[in-house]
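Contributing new records

If you add data, match the layout below exactly. Sequence lines come first and carry their own label; structure lines follow with theirs. Keep one chain per record. Anything else will be rejected by the validation script.
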Amino acid sequence: MRYLLPIVFILTFTLAGIAQPDTLIQSKVRPDTLLQDTTQIKEAPESLQKLIREITKQQEQVSKDAELELDGMLFDETKTKSGKDFYDFFYSRWEAPPGARNFSIFITEVPFRLTTTQIEIKINETLVFQSFLQPRADIVEQMAEYAVAQTQMYLANYEELMRQMEGEDQAGTGIY
């Protein structure tokens, strides 16, 4: 009996707390309703807008400068004297076609049988020219002239090739 009164007292308060209505359930806002943002957007001051325009112009100028600095690099990756002679002939006759941009040329040499080697010219990792090279100077010079012509022709037609590759007839639907 002595414990009965505190137990009844605790049960009364507990049940009274359960019986109170839930304010979230009875509110007029449904759970699927989005609340609107009441903050107002203010225009930035003119000085801040001017500063942002200047910074974006500087960033655009830096990207254009970086693009011009790395454009049309020739890399010599030859290993033998005839490979070096080929690179020298190629370099002395090389002139990029007008409108060609964003390219790098890699001239690599792979040793082959005995005194012959294999020369490869890659533009942006695309193989453009490949031939066997003998150690005779007149043959090396002729091959370099031919390689210059092939490389210039590839660069002149590169934009046209890209446009054709991205055309509708090459896009496909993915249906077999």
